[in-house]
Amino acid sequence: MKQFLSFSIFIFLFSCEDSKQNTKVAESLKTELKDLNKNSKKLENIMKVSDSLYFEIQTAINNDNSAKIKVTEKSSCNIKTLLKIDSLIEINSKLSDNEYSTFFSNIDPNCSINIEYSEFTNELIFKILETNPEKFISFLNYVPVEKEILEYLLNQLQNPISDTINLNEIASKLKETKTENSQLKKLVLNSISTAILKYN
Q: Model's pTM, two decimal places?
C-alpha cells in the first residue's frame, strides 16, 4: 500500500510538472497568436491602401519560433507596365526586347481577379502578337514562361475581349512567320483558330 501511495504521489507530482510545462507552452502560443493578430491587422491596413496593387504575403517561422510576416509588392499585375507598352504600340513605336520581357514577366494568372488588368492584358496580347508575331513567339520561347502562364496566354488568345481584333489577319501573319519553335507557333495558331471558330 505504501508503494502504491508513493507511486500515486510521484505520478501526481509528475503530472503537475507536466501541466506547468503545458501551461508555459500554452502561454507562449497565446503571445505568438496575439502578435500574429496584430500583424494581420497591420496587413489589412496595408491592403486597404490600394486595391490596384498586388501584394505577395509571406509568413515564416523564425529560429526562435516567432512568426515573421513579409509583404512585398509584386511586379506582376502592374497596370502601369501595360499602359506604357500600350502607349508605345499606339504611337507605332517598335517595342524593345526589354519591353517584351517586361510584358511577359508582368503576366500573372492570379491577377485575373482584377477585371481591369485582365481585360487590358487580353487586348495587349493581341496587339503585341499582331504587331510582331515573330518576336511574340520568340519571347514565348526564350523568356522563362511557366506552363501556367503559357496556358493562360493561350486561353486569352482563344477568348479575345475586343471586337476590333482582326483574328483572320493575325492568323495570316502567324502562318507566314518563320520561328525557331514551330511547336509553340502551332499552339498559338491553334488558339487563334479556336477564337475564329467561336467569334466569326
A: 0.61
